[in-house]
Write a structure and sequence with these properties.
With 231 residues, the chain is α/β, with parallel strands linked by helices. It has a single domain, classed as Rossmann fold, CATH 3.40.50. Helix 5 links the parallel strand 4 and strand 5. It has seven helices and five strands. Strands 3-2-1-4-5 form a five-stranded parallel sheet, with helices on both faces. The chain is globular, with a radius of gyration of 17 Å.
Length: 231
C-alpha cells in the first residue's frame, strides 16, 4: 500500500512544471492537470505533458486535460492571437510582455482547486517562477498567497488545500540543476512560445530556458533553430 498523500500538479509540459512535478513526487502521489487554451503550441505542449505523465507513471484516472478556449476568444495575448507577433526576447524589459495571457493562472488554479477538492488532495503545486515572470502579475508570490486565502474561504470547512510554489524564488539555472539532481525528464519538455517542431530560441521563454542551461553549464537537450548566448 502506498500511503503518500495526493497532490495536484499544474503542468504545462515545460521545464519548470516538470521540475515541480519531480519535487512534488518526493512526498506525494501525483494528479496531473494540463490546460489547453488555444495557445500557438497547444499540441506540442500537450504531447510534452503526456510524456511527463508517462515518465512518472501517473495513472490515467489522475490525468486531466482541460480545454478552456474562452481565453483564446478573449485574446489580448500573442500566445493566443495570431494577429499579434510573439516578440523577440528582451530579458531586461520590466514591462508586461505581449505573451501575457490575461489572468491565466487564476483560471487554471480555479480548475485545480475544484479537482483537488473532489480528489481530497492536500496540495496544489505550480511551477511559477518570479525570475521569468517577465512582469506577469499572476506569477508573483503575493498572488499565490492571496489565492490561498480564496481557497480557504471558498471550499468546504473540512477541505485543507494549499498552493505550493517550490521553485518561485529560484533562478533558471538553479531550476536546471534541481531537475538534473532529481533526474527529471527535461528532454521531454517543451518551452517555445511559437514553434512546435524545433524551438525558435529567440522568444522570451526559449531565451530564459537557454540562459538557464548555459549558466548551469549544461547542454539543453531539446532542438533549437537558433541557440544564442544569453547573458
Amino acid at each position: 500500500m502506498n500511503d503518500k498523500p495526493l497532490a495536484v500538479v499544474l503542468a504545462s509540459g515545460g521545464m519548470d512544471s516538470c521540475v515541480t512535478a519531480a519535487i512534488a513526487r518526493q512526498n506525494y502521489d501525483l494528479a496531473m492537470l494540463h490546460m489547453n487554451y488555444g495557445q500557438r503550441t497547444e499540441k506540442r505542449e500537450e504531447k510534452a505533458f503526456r510524456d511527463i505523465c508517462n515518465f512518472y507513471e501517473v495513472p490515467e484516472r489522475r490525468i486531466l486535460i482541460s480545454h478552456v478556449h474562452h481565453l483564446k476568444a478573449i485574446g489580448g495575448s500573442s500566445l493566443t492571437d495570431e494577429g499579434m507577433v510573439v516578440s523577440k526576447a528582451d530579458l531586461n524589459n520590466p514591462s508586461v510582455p505581449s505573451s501575457y495571457v490575461p489572468f491565466r493562472n487564476a483560471n487554471i488554479l480555479s480548475m485545480a482547486v475544484s479537482w483537488a477538492e473532489a480528489l481530497k488532495a492536500e496540495k496544489i503545486f505550480i511551477g511559477a517562477v518570479e525570475e521569468d515572470s517577465s512582469g506577469y502579475p499572476d506569477c508573483r508570490q503575493d498572488f499565490f498567497a492571496a489565492f490561498n486565502k480564496v481557497i480557504a474561504l471558498g471550499t468546504r470547512p473540512e477541505t485543507k488545500l494549499e498552493i505550493i510554489t517550490p521553485i518561485i524564488r529560484l533562478k533558471k539555472s538553479e531550476i536546471v540543476k534541481k531537475g538534473l539532481e532529481l533526474k527529471a525528464p527535461l528532454h521531454l519538455t517543451w518551452s517555445c512560445y511559437q514553434n512546435e517542431d524545433v524551438a525558435c530560441g529567440v522568444c522570451d521563454s526559449c531565451a530564459l530556458r537557454l540562459r538557464g542551461f548555459q549558466l548551469a553549464g549544461v547542454e539543453d537537450p531539446i532542438p533549437y533553430k537558433e541557440r544564442p548566448i544569453y547573458q
